[in-house]
Specification:
Blueprint: H1 5-12, E1 17-22, H2 25-28, H3 48-51, H4 54-59, H5 61-77, H6 82-89, E2 96-101, H7 107-111, E3 116-118, E4 121-128, E5 158-162, H8 171-183, E6 186-190, H9 202-208, E7 212-217, H10 222-226, E8 229-232, H11 235-249
Parallel strand pairs: 1-2, 1-6, 2-3, 6-7, 7-8
Antiparallel strand pairs: 4-5
Helix pairs in contact: 1-11, 6-11, 8-9
């Protein structure tokens, strides 16, 4: 249902536990491309199974590594936008705010959100292919010419600590995301097409547990169909308006 900021403020009155689920769209205004938008999404240019699966990485480690190096450069020079900042500001308006993000860019933390669950890992962290040696940063391999570099502990090739297709999400993070979805009284969904599981099932879980779901997106994607309210527009525009209206009402 297409709604207004005023409707959302009314629905959010009295809410104590808020969950926020975000996707690539929230970082688009920071200059980081989304995946599935027809014109400029990453999957319009690259094959997801070649660039975001372990088999693809094993087939062509140099190509996938250089793609992530390029994207890491983009993330390092990106700044949180008005949407990220508004989401961080929600902590001043609700007693409990949990941000569940599919993004690997770390921009929610950079904006000041303090409880962020990164479902698909982080491009700022690296691990060896065996998964036994983790928490490396790219700087740890500065003295290696090989691409991808090798694990100093076991000699395996290094990969970004992100979740590729067919891989399990970090168990404890996913568990916390399920709990946040089941316990929240309202869920704000921002900038996701809602097609990648299991993240896409969280709004439905929240609905079934009795929460209201508000979707913010310039396009009427999957989530909008089942959300209680749909706020059509960019995160960087709609979210600051929502925060300002919530502040005015308190
Ligand atoms: C704006 C905006 C603005 C634009 N403001 N908004 C059940 C059924 C069917 C399939 C499966 C299933 N369970 C599992 C699967 C398989 C698979 C899956 O879901 N496939 C579907 C595609 C069909 N899932 C998995 O494999 C997951 N693993 C798993 O389930 O493990 C268990 C298992 C193991 C083995 C076998 C079976 C099960 C893992 C998924 C990992 C996803 N990884 C990626 C790459 C991460 C690393 C990287 O970045 O390189 O994650 S893929 C990519 O998609 C990335 C994203 O996080 C994810 C979601 O994309 P998102 O964020 O929604 O972006 P877009 O581009 O799709 O949408 C952007 C939106 O923003 C749009 O709506 C725009 O309109 C909007 N927008 N401007 C606000 N300014």
């Amino acid at each position: 249902m297409n709604a207004t900021i005023r409707d959302a403020v009314r629905w959010l009155a009295g809410v104590k536990r808020l969950a926020v689920l975000t996707g690539a769209g929230v970082s688009k205004e920071s200059g980081i491309p989304t995946f599935r938008e027809a014109q400029d999404g990453l999957w319009a240019q690259y094959d997801p199974m070649e660039m975001a699966s372990k088999d693809g990485f094993l087939r062509n480690p140099e190509l996938v590594w250089s793609w992530y190096e390029h994207r890491f450069g983009m993330v390092l020079s990106a700044q949180p936008n008005a949407g990220h900042r508004a989401i961080a500001d929600l902590e001043q308006l609700f007693p409990s705010v949990t941000v569940v993000t599919q993004n690997i860019d770390g921009l929610h933390m950079a904006a000041g959100s303090t409880h962020v669950l990164e479902l698909h890992g982080s491009i700022r962290r690296y691990k060896c292919l065996s998964g036994r040696h983790t928490d490396y940063s790219l700087a740890d391999f500065a003295d290696q010419d090989e691409k991808p570099p090798r694990c100093p502990e076991c000699g395996e090739i290094i990969r970004p600590d992100v979740v590729w297709f067919g891989e399990y999400l970090p168990e404890s993070t996913l568990q916390q995301a399920y709990e946040a979805s089941l316990r929240c009284e309202a869920m704000l969904v921002v900038g996701t097409s809602g097609v990648v599981q299991p993240a896409a099932s969280l709004p439905r879980l929240a609905t079934r547990a009795g929460a209201m779901v508000i979707d913010v997106n310039p396009e009427e994607d999957e989530i909008a169909m089942t959300a209680d309210l749909f706020l059509k527009g960019r995160g960087g525009k709609v979210l600051p308006q929502l925060v300002a209206a919530l502040r005015a009402q308190r």
